[in-house]
Amino acid sequence: MATSSGAGVTSTSRSGAGVGSGSRPVGRVACAAVINHNNAPLFLKVFKDAAGSLPRQTDAVVRMQMHEVVYNSLDVVEERLVALRAQSARDNDGFLGCLAVVGPMSLYGFVTNTHLKFIIALRSTGPHDYKDSTVKALFRKLHAAVIGAFLNPFTLPDAPIVSAGFEARVDEIARRFG
Amino acid sequence: MSKASLSKLGDAAFERTDKVSAELLALTYGSFVRQLLIDYEDAEEVNAQLAKMGYNIGVRLVDDFLAKSNAPPCASFADTADIVAKVAFKMFLGVPALVGSWSSDRRTFSLVFTDNPLAEFTELPEKWGGVWYSNVLCGVIKGALEMVQMEVDARFVRCTLRGEDLNEIRVTLLQVLQEKPPVDDE
């Protein structure tokens, strides 16, 4: 199940979140991921200070844990998609709501009409820390950035997005979110 | 003719011409360049092909330009530069260019522009750092000016896709071609 703590991110590690980040306020976006219709990861960016990892963990470990957390949440995405299909098309804006709470993070999902899935992990204390409208606005910004990346003729469909510009735009979106 | 009125001329010509969507242009050109890179696997070769293609566009486009733009005749190479920048760029690309950096012998100038509709969405992979993505424009300038008896060399020196803040094409007048009568013309 997606909510399992298999990723090893426990609530005790939250106290360590601010350690490595100096005086800079800790960001609220811990991770942003783009997954294609076949559930293959196209992009995954971890914001380590917000991810609540212990300082001694290496970037690679944190990244791997985040991969696992996101991957697990895809089960919930599938469930939500079934529920979403039952809704009328007009109410369906692709927002899947809070998928899971894993340790110090809440995971939110969004699906586009082309079945691209976006997962964003936000630092939180529970599933109701953020208003839906706030998270939706965040997804809309990410969606716009992904559209931009796909319009680049050198981005191959269904291949991981390798683009410094896209990464910088995601950084910017996360930074602005706080 | 003053530069301001040339700009107006460019705007008017742009208003009159048929438009296509920016996405169509940028994506068509982008997939074209990508395919060239796949076929030739060499940045220099692709630059040359793009310039050649542009040359063939330029020799055709110049007649259309002269017929539709109402551009005044050029008395000097400086006039030519202004008309290319203010009228031709605006008419065909929708963005005007600035003329600057004249050489002391007044035979070389720079066309500078920031917005490039060809490269709207493009981000060049590091592997192809040697590619002048919009090199087709150099070919167009060369081809078009050659049809009006000016042999020029045009090459990119700066490109926003290489992380610079503007695009710069350096244009050098090599020689003014003389109209020769056909050989053995009675």
UniProtKB/TrEMBL annotation, chain A:
Location of the region described as Disordered in the Swiss-Prot/TrEMBL record: 1-24
One Gene Ontology cellular component annotation held by this UniProt entry: cytoplasm
InterPro entries: Longin-like_dom_sf (IPR011012), Sedlin (IPR006722), TRAPPC2L (IPR044760)
One Pfam family named in its UniProt record: Sedlin_N
Gene Ontology terms describing biological process: endoplasmic reticulum to Golgi vesicle-mediated transport
Assigned protein family: Belongs to the TRAPP small subunits family. Sedlin subfamily.
Identification of the protein by name: Trafficking protein particle complex subunit 2-like protein
Biological source species: Porphyra umbilicalis
From TrEMBL, chain B:
UniProt GO BP: Golgi vesicle transport; macroautophagy
Function: May play a role in vesicular transport from endoplasmic reticulum to Golgi.
Full protein name: Trafficking protein particle complex subunit
Keyword Transcription regulation among UniProt keywords: no
Main localization of the protein described in the UniProt heading: endoplasmic reticulum
Superkingdom of the organism of origin: Eukaryota
Species this protein is from: Porphyra umbilicalis (Purple laver)
Membrane-spanning parts: none
UniProt keyword terms in alphabetical order: Endoplasmic reticulum, ER-Golgi transport, Golgi apparatus, Transport
Coiled-coil ranges per UniProt: none
Family statement: Belongs to the TRAPP small subunits family. BET3 subfamily.
